[in-house]
């Protein structure tokens, strides 16, 4: 029998309808199971962990916020303030625990309408960050990035997305037209880490800015009106180059120490020592910041703050420098500096017994333009070929090596003719006629050929006219060791960064003949400070004492103007030059004759002869080339016997030969010492 197609279709529909309740039952079962699980979880969270989550809602975080305090000051040896602090109004920002970039941007935009800051250090990256901190801009760029990378097989991380956004904004120059003032404020705010305080503007805040910001502080989360401290120099700005500088909100942290300082807790705009003593003594000058206990709610809002520690200003540094004497020496150098090719003048005045420096002045001169710049640190970082001032040290080495004795120091001043080298003569005996002279006269006249012959004996060879140079292989090192015991050719160890040891030339091959010039100071170079330490050895009877410029560290007392000393410098002996008393007498007698002798070829000069009390000295002249011209370095070392005074000075690049400038400047400095540092010994 044939089947009815209508019935077949009806049966199919009936079967499908019969299956529908079964599917619904399954779906309803799954939904019911999920609902039961959700109810169980809600019950668990409410009953078992409800108290915990309620406490999280009400939770307060306590964090210590650090404030700023004045840096320690610098005093001179007499207690005068060389570097002090000036309080000035400032606008600060303290970053909360959950402050977002958009929130900081909003504050920066509002603040920029009331305050103007220097935008010179606004970085390109900060402009991009400021642009992206705008929620609308961020979302728009995010969509572009997502669309461009939608076919990537691996999903982008948030860090990758941010990198792409920054790159896109930079390529499209989208941040070029941002408000620079607002962007700079945003950059400063971004430089603060959580609950640290940074300066938005630390100087030149106008009264109008203070008034308008003060009236609207509630509109600017984290913004406060505070106080900043800037350096001032009561004794003159010339001390800035000696003591060093401190960064400010415009310069920011030094790039070469940025990461180190950030790791130590500094903020981007926090002041920090940037050079010389300010940098070297940063750890004690910065003091300890004030501490405020800040309580924040779960959403990051600040609920309360309580000062726990008022902070302690930085410790003060008292120098061995005499401020008035320092200024006087600086002016003497500047007023008496020759022109022409002269490259500068440098002078160090030191206590030979303690190593304390009374004055360290210097001036650099651009021989092309004539422009002069104060540079006291040229005493420690300008290496100069000094000439004959080193001859007393060569004489001492001759005594120690046994090639000359105190009872017989006579050698001929004569032309030195070594095979293969140019002839060497003394300026006062150009003919080279053999003239017997002793050590005292050799120092007074500054006989080059006397010390060439003495140096050859130290190197193992007795001079014979026309003979080839036949020194021992260790001759150069032997002579340098002799000079080195006086501190020549080595760093002094002064407590200022940037010192150089000078330059020591090669000693092999064709340079072997330079040994002859080394014997009268025409080869290796030294700093003026090395000369000061060297002459101190002669003045104090043989002790190599480390020079220093910091005499003590003091700490202020709470609610008092008094200070307590927490550290005092003590003399540091670095070595000893051992000579018999008679040998020292020979050296000192020769230096006395330089400053006070009456020989027709005396090198001390009239200015030195007039000094009272009398000094012992040694002059120096070295032949140099400056700006393509034949020039000279004039130098001088001097000390007053039995007194805590010694001086070294040098003038490189002079066009005139033996014009007495070194003696004139030295005499003026010595007179200034008796005027500003201590009374003359014969004063009643």
TrEMBL record:
Membrane association type: Single-pass membrane protein
Domain Penicillin-binding protein transpeptidase as annotated: residue spans: 346-670
Main location: membrane
Keywords: Cell membrane, Cell shape, Cell wall biogenesis/degradation, Membrane, Peptidoglycan synthesis, Transmembrane, Transmembrane helix
Pfam families the record matches: PBP_dimer, Transpeptidase
SUPFAM superfamilies on file: beta-lactamase/transpeptidase-like, Penicillin binding protein dimerisation domain
Membrane-spanning parts: 20-44
Entry-linked InterPro entries: Beta-lactam/transpept, Beta-lactam/transpept-like, PBP_dimer, PBP_dimer_sf, PCN-bd_Tpept
Cell compartment(s), UniProt: Cell membrane
Residue intervals of the Penicillin-binding protein dimerisation domain: 70-304
Keyword Membrane (UniProt): yes
Family: Belongs to the transpeptidase family.
Protein name: Penicillin-binding transpeptidase domain-containing protein
Biological source species: Leuconostoc aquikimchii
């Amino acid at each position: 029998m044939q089947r009815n197609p209508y019935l077949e279709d009806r049966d199919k529909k009936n079967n499908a309808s019969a299956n529908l309740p079964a599917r619904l039952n399954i779906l309803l079962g799954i939904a019911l199971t999920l609902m039961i699980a959700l109810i169980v979880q809600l019950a668990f969270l409410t009953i078992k962990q409800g108290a915990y989550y309620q406490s999280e809602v009400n939770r307060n975080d306590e964090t210590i916020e650090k404030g700023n305090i004045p840096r320690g000051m610098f005093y001179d040896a007499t207690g005068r303030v060389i570097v002090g602090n000036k309080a000035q109004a400032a606008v600060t920002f303290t970053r909360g625990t959950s402050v977002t970039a958009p929130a900081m941007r909003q504050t920066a935009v509002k603040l920029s309408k009331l305050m103007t800051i220097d935008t010179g250090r606004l970085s390109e990256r900060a402009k991009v960050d400021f642009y992206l901190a705008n929620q609308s801009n961020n979302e728009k760029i995010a969509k572009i990035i997502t669309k461009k990378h939608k076919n990537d097989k691996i999903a982008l991380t948030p860090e990758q997305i941010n990198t792409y956004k920054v790159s896109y904004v930079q390529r499209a120059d989208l941040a070029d037209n941002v408000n620079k003032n607002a962007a700079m404020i945003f950059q400063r705010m971004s430089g603060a880490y959580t609950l640290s305080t940074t300066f938005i503007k630390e100087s030149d805040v106008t009264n109008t800015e203070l008034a308008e910001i003060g009236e609207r502080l509630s509109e600017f989360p984290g913004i406060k009106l505070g106080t900043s401290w800037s350096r001032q120099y009561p004794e003159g700005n010339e001390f800035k180059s000696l003591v060093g500088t401190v960064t400010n909100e415009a310069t920011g942290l030094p790039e070469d120490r940025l990461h180190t300082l950030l790791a130590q807790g500094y903020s981007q705009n926090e002041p920090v020592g940037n050079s010389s003593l300010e940098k070297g003594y940063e750890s004690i000058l910065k003091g300890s910041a004030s501490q405020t206990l800040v309580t924040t709610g779960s959403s990051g809002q600040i609920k309360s703050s309580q000062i726990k520690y008022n902070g302690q200003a930085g410790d003060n540094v008292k120098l061995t420098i005499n401020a008035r004497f320092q200024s006087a020496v600086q002016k003497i150098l500047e007023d008496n500096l020759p022109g022409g090719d002269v490259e500068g003048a440098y002078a160090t005045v030191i206590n030979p017994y303690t190593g304390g420096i009374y004055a360290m002045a210097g001036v650099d001169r651009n021989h092309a333009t004539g422009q002069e710049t104060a540079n006291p640190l040229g005493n420690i970082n300008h290496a100069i070929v000094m000439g004959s001032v080193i001859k007393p040290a060569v004489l001492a080495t001759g005594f120690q090596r046994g090639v000359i004795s105190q009872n017989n120091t006579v050698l001929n001043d004569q032309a030195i003719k070594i095979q293969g080298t140019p002839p060497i003569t003394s300026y006062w005996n150009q003919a080279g006629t053999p003239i017997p002279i002793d050590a005292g006269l050799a120092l007074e006249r500054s006989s080059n050929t006397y010390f060439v012959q003495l140096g050859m004996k130290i190197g193992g060879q007795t001079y014979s006219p026309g003979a080839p140079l036949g020194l021992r292989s260790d001759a150069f090192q032997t002579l340098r060791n002799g000079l080195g015991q006086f501190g020549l050719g080595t760093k002094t160890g002064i407590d200022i960064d940037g010192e150089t040891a000078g330059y020591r030339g090669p000693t092999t091959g064709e340079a072997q003949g330079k040994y002859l010039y080394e014997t009268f100071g025409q080869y290796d170079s030294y700093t003026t400070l090395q000369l000061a330490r060297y002459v101190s050895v002669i003045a104090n009877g043989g002790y190599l004492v480390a020079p220093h410029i910091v005499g003590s560290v003091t700490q202020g007392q709470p609610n008092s103007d008094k200070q307590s000393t927490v550290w005092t410098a003590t003399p540091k002996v670095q070595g000893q030059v051992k000579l018999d008393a008679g040998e020292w007498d020979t050296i000192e007698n020769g230096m006395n004759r330089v400053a006070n002798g009456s020989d027709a070829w005396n090198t001390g000069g009239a200015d030195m002869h007039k000094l009272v009390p009398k000094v012992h000295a040694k002059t120096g002249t070295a032949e140099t080339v400056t700006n393509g011209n034949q020039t000279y370095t004039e130098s001088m070392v001097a000390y007053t016997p039995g007194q805590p005074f010694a001086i070294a000075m040098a003038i490189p690049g002079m066009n005139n030969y033996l014009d007495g400038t070194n003696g004139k400047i030295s005499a003026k400095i010595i007179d200034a010492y008796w005027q500003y540092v201590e009374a003359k010994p014969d004063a009643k």
